[in-house]
Amino acid sequence: MPGLTAYPTFPEDVPTAPLLIIDYALIKAGDEHEKDRLFQAAKDLGFWYLKNHGADEEVNSMFEFGMETMSLPLDEKMKFEQGDSGLSFGYKAAGMSAIDEKGTRDATEILNVAKDDALAWPAVARRTYPESVNACMTSTIRPFVCKAVEVNTTLINVLNDKLGLPEGTLAGLHRPEAFSADVARFIRTSSEAYAAVDAKLLILGHTDYGSLSFLHNRLGGLQVRMPVTDEWLYVKPLPGHAICNIGDGLTVFSAGILRSNIHRVVAPPGEQRTYERHSLVYFTRPEDAAVLRPIAESRIVADAIAKNPEKNWDTGTTAKDWVARRISSTRFNNFKSAEAWNAQARGTETDALFARSAVSAK
Ligand SMILES: O=C(O)CCC(=O)C(=O)O
Ligand SMILES: [Fe+2]
């Protein structure tokens, strides 16, 4: 099966990030100790492995589907390019993002299928897609979306309770039936591109724009910036384990208690470097209309606000605008100058979130 290509193993001598392994089966069974470990992981690093998530079959089918769709001719894929306005749905060609202050073009292709389209199919909720996407909506994409929504909702509910929020508060801001920027994303970077990209950066350092990401990697390349030391460490892909991470939404809702950690993608290490890299993510994002501000009904969140009165967590922005702004700011066509690049939101908000949550995690 193409989705199950045997890749060279991740090198032994490369330092890796110490992600906790959370057992989804135990979480589902209501194990309090495991829920505490999840909360700890979400606060300390904002990244963890998830085992026993039960989505292997859906994930494997998505890898096959993604590779097939990415192999379409470029002009066919370009008919569905997401454009420069901040839309998160559709195809992003290699070269459409800037990855540094020099305006270097990226080398990574992305296909984003909206949750709203996968659930509404055959009706069109947000946009249209290539025929190969349509052909897999029912068999492959919707089952993956539904599984990812189930897993992420379960985890969000645990975080909700650990934050002392009234039952279902966070879930109420991430209702599957409400329009959101949730997407199933497939990413491809050719091995030739690793050499072509300046500084070998495939995806620039960023925090995720939504609330919770459910990521599946087969090759290395993902790196997280470690709290306190600022060291970039690889996240080693483990077979059958998802990599989960907190995004900006949950950080803001929790006034920095949950950590939206900076990460990036570089060329895979060691012998893996000669292989094309693919990854699959489901991004759970707050509903379009949700305003990104702390939920102070919780005493724990209220305490976090009181501890850092100088920090204003109320973005005054809807999730829809937040995601659109962050996406549009990465587009090459919107790149203006090194000064504008350095001054824009990517630096301010991510560094603020990063610094603040590093303190609260201690
Ligand atoms: O490809 C990966 O491993 C991570 C991708 C990522 O961080 C993203 O798409 O936000
Ligand atoms: Fe990311």
TrEMBL record:
GO molecular function terms attached to this record: metal ion binding; oxidoreductase activity
Domain (Fe2OG dioxygenase): residue spans on this chain: 180-286
Keywords: Iron, Metal-binding, Oxidoreductase
Gene3D superfamilies from the UniProt entry: B-lactam Antibiotic, Isopenicillin N Synthase, Chain
UniProt keyword annotation of ATP-binding present: no
InterPro entries, per database record: DIOX_N, IPNS-like_FE2OG_OXY, IPNS-like_sf, Iron_ascorbate_oxido_reductase, Oxoglu/Fe-dep_dioxygenase_dom
Source superkingdom: Eukaryota
Assigned protein family: Belongs to the iron/ascorbate-dependent oxidoreductase family.
PANTHER family: 2-OXOGLUTARATE (2OG) AND FE(II)-DEPENDENT OXYGENASE SUPERFAMILY PROTEIN-RELATED
Protein name: Fe2OG dioxygenase domain-containing protein
Organism from which the protein derives: Ceriporiopsis subvermispora (strain B)
